[in-house]
C-alpha cells in the first residue's frame, strides 16, 4: 500500500523519497567503523521491492560497477514499488581488494549469520534481519573467482518457474540451474521465499564493459517486467543481443594435465566436441608443450585466464546437460 509506513535501518521511507543510509554494525580492530552505503528509493505507487547487491565478495568489482551504473543513471528510482541498492556489500574486502572479510571468512558462506558469531556472520545477520524483510526480489551480481572469467550467465535454483521466467527475460545466453550452496545469500533468501537471480560475468579485480552492459540491460528488463519502471527507450538504446538461450542443468571443469604456462585457444561461449583442442600447457624453459583437449562436448562458460597453472587446476568450464 502507498501509505504503508516503511522503515529501513531506522529511517522512515516515505512515498517518492530516496535516501542514502548506512549499515555500520562492524568495526575494524583499530576501532574505526566501516559504513556500507545502502540506497533506498520508494515510488509513490505501490509495487514490489527489488534488492540489487554487488561486491558480496570484495574483489568482484564488475558487479559493483553494474550497480554503480544503475544508480549513476538514476535507473534505481522507481515509478512503482521500491528499490534497495547495496553496490558494495563487503566494503572490508573491497578496500583491501580481497574476497573475504577481515576475519578470513567468505561472507557468502555464513548466511543467515549470527548476532554472536564471527565478524562476517554478524554482518550477514544484520543484512538478513534489517534489509531482507523489505524485499520481494533480488539480483545479486558476481564474477568468476581469481583469474577465472565467466561468460555472462544467470544462476537459479532448480524447479523454480518464476525465477526461470525472470532469467529468460534478463537475457543472458546461459541460464544455470543448480543446487543452492549451503549458507549462501541465495539459499537464505530462497528459504525466506524471496526470488533471486544470481548474475555471474567476468573475473575478479576486473571491469569488462561488455559484461557490464549485459548486466545493466538485463536488470532494466527485469525491473520493467516486475512493473517497477518502464525502460523501453533505455533498452532500445542499449541494443541487447538476441542470442539463443541455453538452460544448463550440469557442467564440469577440465583440469590441467600438467603444471606450467597455460595458452587457451578457445573462446567463451564456443561449442566444443570431444577431442577438440582447448589450448596448450608448457614449461617455462621450452622443453615441452602439451595439448589440452576436451573430454566431453558442450559450451565454454568459463576460462581460467591465469598464465600459470598447477597440475589439477580448473582451467576450462564446460556445460554437460543443456536444452534450448
TrEMBL record:
Check the record and name the SUPFAM superfamilies matching this protein.
Answer: Zn-dependent exopeptidases
Instruction: Give the cofactors, semicolon-separated.
Output: Zn(2+)
Pfam families per record? AstE_AspA_cat (PF24827)
Q: Where is the Succinylglutamate desuccinylase/Aspartoacylase catalytic domain?
A: 47-224
A GO molecular function annotation here is: hydrolase activity, acting on carbon-nitrogen (but not peptide) bonds, in linear amides
What keywords were assigned to this record? Hydrolase, Metal-binding, Zinc
Matches recorded under Gene3D superfamilies: Zn peptidases
Do the record's keywords include Zinc? Answer: yes
Q: What is this protein called?
A: Succinylglutamate desuccinylase/Aspartoacylase catalytic domain-containing protein
Upper taxonomic lineage: Bacteria, Pseudomonadati, Bacteroidota, Flavobacteriia, Flavobacteriales
Amino acid at each position: 500500500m502507498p501509505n504503508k509506513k516503511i522503515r529501513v535501518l531506522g529511517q522512515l521511507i516515505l512515498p517518492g523519497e530516496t535516501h542514502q543510509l548506512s549499515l555500520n554494525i562492524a568495526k575494524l580492530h583499530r576501532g574505526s567503523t566501516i559504513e556500507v552505503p545502502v540506497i533506498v528509493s520508494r515510488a509513490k505507487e505501490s509495487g514490489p521491492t527489488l534488492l540489487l547487491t554487488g561486491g558480496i565478495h570484495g574483489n568482484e568489482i564488475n558487479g559493483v560497477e553494474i550497480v554503480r551504473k544503475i544508480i549513476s543513471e538514476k535507473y534505481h528510482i522507481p515509478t512503482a514499488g521500491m528499490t534497495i541498492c547495496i553496490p558494495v556489500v563487503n566494503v572490508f574486502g573491497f578496500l583491501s581488494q580481497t574476497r573475504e572479510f577481515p576475519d578470513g571468512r567468505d561472507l557468502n558462506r555464513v548466511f543467515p549469520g549470527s548476532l554472536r558469531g564471527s565478524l562476517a556472520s554478524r554482518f550477514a545477520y544484520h543484512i538478513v534481519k534489517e534489509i531482507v524483510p523489505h524485499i520481494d526480489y533480488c539480483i545479486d551480481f558476481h564474477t568468476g573467482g581469481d583469474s577465472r572469467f565467466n561468460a555472462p550467465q544467470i544462476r537459479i535454483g532448480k524447479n523454480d518457474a518464476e525465477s526461470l521466467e525472470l532469467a529468460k527475460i534478463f537475457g543472458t545466453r546461459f541460464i544455470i540451474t543448480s543446487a543452492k550452496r549451503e549458507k549462501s545469500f541465495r539459499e537464505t533468501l530462497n528459504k525466506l521465499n524471496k526470488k533471486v537471480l544470481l548474475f555471474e560475468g567476468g573475473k575478479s579485480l576486473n571491469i569488462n564493459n561488455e559484461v557490464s552492459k549485459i548486466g545493466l540491460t538485463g536488470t532494466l528488463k527485469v525491473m520493467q517486467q516486475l512493473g517497477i519502471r518502464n525502460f523501453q527507450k533505455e533498452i532500445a538504446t542499449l541494443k541487447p543481443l538476441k542470442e539463443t538461450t541455453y538452460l544448463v542443468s550440469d557442467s564440469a571443469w577440465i583440469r590441467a594435465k600438467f603444471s606450467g604456462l597455460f595458452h587457451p585457444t578457445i573462446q567463451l561461449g564456443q561449442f566444443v566436441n570431444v577431442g577438440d583442442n582447448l589450448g596448450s600447457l608448457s614449461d617455462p624453459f621450452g622443453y615441452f608443450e602439451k595439448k589440452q583437449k576436451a573430454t566431453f562436448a558442450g559450451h565454454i562458460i568459463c576460462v581460467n585466464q591465469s598464465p600459470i597453472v598447477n597440475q589439477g587446476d580448473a582451467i576450462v568450464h564446460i556445460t554437460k546437460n543443456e536444452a534450448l
